[in-house]
Amino acid sequence: MANILVFDSGVGGLSVYQEIQTLLPQHNYIYLFDNKAYPYGELEPQRLIERVSRFMRSMVEKHAIDLVVIACNTASTIVLPRLRQELKIPVVGVVPAIKPAAAISQKAIGLIATPATVVRSYTHNLIKEFAPNSKVELLGSTRLVTMAEEKLRGTAVNLVELQQILTPLLNQIDTAVLGCTHFPLLREEMQLVLGKGVTLIDSGKAIAERVKRLLDANMVDSSSRLSPYAIYSSATPWEGVALNIGLAKFGFSPVRTFPLPDA
Ligand code: DGL
């Protein structure tokens, strides 16, 4: 049994957590989200790197973490080299599923992500390497991220607003990459707006497989140091009651604060 930390700026990482937990239900999970600095898609890169590094070092030490999942595309596109240098445990990141999208797309790919992810050189290198012959339309939106946060708190998604945001992609693409972990939480609504002819792809299952392979290879066994099945936050979350109801659906106990010296 391993202690696995899943991290995101908000509730998006729950979409990744769900895939990992489904594949590997025998492990202990802690879900940490940095709602204090949310949204990461609008955070200055160096500040993001410093924050994530501090969080991870502190959590790994305090909770005997065996493996970290950075369940955030925006963070993963810039923090992974630093974390892999600093932490002595496996670090799994999530980046937009451009490669599988290019393998199936016959027309054009829409990459839907945060405003930061769509401008990162990491993302542009991914496209150059794995989709050199595909037409890739980029759409960065923080409002979509917030809509996913609202949905988890019980607010219905406004389809008219969603359609407005996705307008640049309508009838232009056959494959949409959900390049932000918040977006699988809006999958049904996005499918409705984009239409049945568009295949939506995210990285959740691939991440779960990667975690499995790493745990198999590292033969982690933390059965003697059970960690709590808990969830932490760095600041009082908005609509806390509604958030806790949403989190309970993923099996989590009410949110607790993780006191981290501010970065
Ligand atoms: N869920 C995150 C991602 O995958 C970031 C959302 C945000 O905080 O802007 O990119």
UniProtKB/TrEMBL annotation:
The keyword Isomerase applies. Its EC number is 5.1.1.3. GO terms for molecular function: glutamate racemase activity. GO terms for biological process: cell wall organization; peptidoglycan biosynthetic process; regulation of cell shape. It comes from the Bacteria. Keywords: Cell shape, Cell wall biogenesis/degradation, Isomerase, Peptidoglycan synthesis. The active site is at C72 (proton donor/acceptor), C180 (proton donor/acceptor). Gene3D superfamilies: 3.40.50.1860. Pathway: Cell wall biogenesis; peptidoglycan biosynthesis. It catalyses: L-glutamate = D-glutamate. Pfam families: Asp_Glu_race. InterPro entries: Asp/Glu/hydantoin_racemase, Asp/Glu_race, Asp/Glu_racemase_AS_1, Glu_race. Substrate binds at D8, S9, Y40, G41, N73, T74, T181, H182. It is an enzyme of class 5 (isomerase). Provides the (R)-glutamate required for cell wall biosynthesis. HAMAP family: Glu_racemase (MF_00258). Belongs to the aspartate/glutamate racemases family. This is Glutamate racemase.
